[in-house]
Amino acid sequence: MTEQINDFQKDALHYLHMLEGDGVELLGKTAVSTKSTVEEPGDVIDFKSTVMTCKKCPELAMCRNSVVFGDGNMKADLVFVGEAPGAEEDRQGLPFVGKAGQLLTKMIEAIQMRRQDVYICNVIKCRPPNNRTPLPDEIGNCLPYLEKQIKTIQPRIVCALGAVAARALLNTTRSISSMRGHNFEYQGAKLIVTYHPAYLLRNPADKKKAWEDLKRVRSELQS
Questions:
Q1: % of the chain with per-residue pLDDT over 70
Q2: Domains (range + CATH), the chain
Q3: If phi over 0 gives left and psi between -120 and 50 gives alpha, with beta otherwise, what is residue 181?
Q4: What does the chain look like in DSSP terms, one character per residue?
Q5: pLDDT digits (tens, 9 = 90+) for 182-215
Q6: What digits encode the pLDDT tens for the residues 4-41?
Q7: Which residue from 16, 82, 83, 100 could staple onto 198, CB 3.0 to 4.6 Å apart?
Q8: Using CA atoms, how far apart are residues 208 and 185, in angstroms rounded to an integer?
């Protein structure tokens, strides 16, 4: 390691080392999706165009650089749902491409999948000013878009990243600690709740709990 290694790289390496010491070798067979990646059909392209020009939330529409629709395999067995785009996501127009996104990629790889095998999106598609928590009406405006995305993909597993995503999908005010470790149902898929990667970067001690959640995700995919 060089002295120039940044804090995130240290966090990511720490996470991977923790996985290696916590049974990663027991994962055995890969959990790559058996569904094939296909081009977006016309109805999805039309739907995406509607989302990309949405102005239901005037404040978000005015300050955004990009609408972050989502990215990945439209036939994925596993969908990750986060809270909202951050600064880098707003700049690139893609979900989870900043530091939290780099950690999410490592988490996906830790269960022996590839980022291109899954689908990644957020509850709301525009970055809130200063990365504030999305307001209830913003979530309400955007939730139908997320619901249609998941209905179109028809995954086996939905993994909610963080309390905002879990509460929006489950229409609850429960704490994330009370939702972790349980299987919920969402549009015919099993919904599993874990911590948001951004939270894990700030609270590395909880990465082991997140790893337990990821093992549950992989177990459900293999069942």
A1: 81
A2: 38-222 (3.40.470.10)
A3: left
A4: --TT--HHHHHHHHHHHHHHTTTGGGG-S----SSPP-PPPHHHHHHHHHHHT--SSHHHHHH-S-----EE-TT-SEEEEES---HHHHHHTSSS-SHHHHHHHHHHHHTT--GGGSEEEESSSSPPGGGPPPPHHHHHHHHHHHHHHHHHH--SEEEEESHHHHHHHHT----HHHHTT--EEETTEEEEEE--HHHHHH-GGGHHHHHHHHHHHHHHHH-
A5: 999 999 999 999 999 999 999 999 999 999 999 9
A6: 334 444 544 555 555 544 444 434 444 444 444 445 65
A7: 100
A8: 24
* CA–CA dist 177, 163 (Å, integer): 9
Average pLDDT score, the chain: 87
* Cα–Cα distance measured from residue 14 to residue 210, given in angstroms and rounded to the nearest whole number: 14
Predicted confidence at residue 43, as pLDDT, reads: 77
Q: For residue 115, give the nearest of 183, 172, 16, 37 by alpha carbon.
A: 37
Q: Do residues 191 and 185 lie in contact, with contact meaning Cβ atoms separated by under 8 Å? A: yes
Is the whole model's pTM more than 0.70, yes or no? yes
pLDDT at 47 over 80: yes
Quote the tokens at residue 128.
Answer: 């809130």
- CB hemisphere CA count around 194 (13 angstroms): 25
Which tokens in the block code for residue 67?
């609408």
Which two structure tokens, joined as six digits, stand for 171? 């229409």
- The token pair at 35 is 């569904």
Query: How crowded is residue 188: how many other Cβ atoms within 10 Å of its Cβ?
Result: 11
